[in-house]
Amino acid sequence: MIKFDSVSITLDGAQLFHDFNYTVPISKTLLINGKSGSGKSTLLRMILGFENRYTGQIVFNGIPVSAETVHKVRSNCSYVSQDVDLPDGTVQNVIDTIFSLKANQHMQPDKSLLHAMIEKLQLPHDLLNKETSQLSGGERQRTGIVIAFLLKRPVLLLDEPTSGVEAAMKQTLVSTITESGKTAVVVSHDPEWQNSTNIQILEL
Fold it and tell me: Are 32 and 189 within 8 A, CB to CB?
């Protein structure tokens, strides 16, 4: 459960939210829609503790988000940024590095899930051997989503996950996320999301 309780924030002289109250639906997909600069990405950053210049409170699974609790919050979230900033190296090296981090050392990548996701999202069969610098924008986005699913965390936070994806793949991505049973918060201008019946929409 993610709850915004009387949250207000002003950045660069612009008030994005004033006394904002909202509860994200559990195990469903929330689409955040609105004009550029309305604070869509800022909401994701506040949940993750990357942005803390706000008043009010954000509660994650009953725990207020703070410097002391943010590690626990992040360990329950998979975040895919708009630019999908993957480090240099092969995709396999990136996955190995992510799973070597302290927060993930108790897990091993699910190889069956990995290959199933690669096939479902129509990524190259040799994806794991490709250098991240060789991936197209759409391939980087889909690879980021594959890694997010591999981590098997209950919450997905996705910033414009279909912006660089071909039209034929967008519906596959939307259905993969909306039918996952995860709590997903998606920032997107893409009308493909709004056409889904499994989505709750928050207009900013």
Answer: no
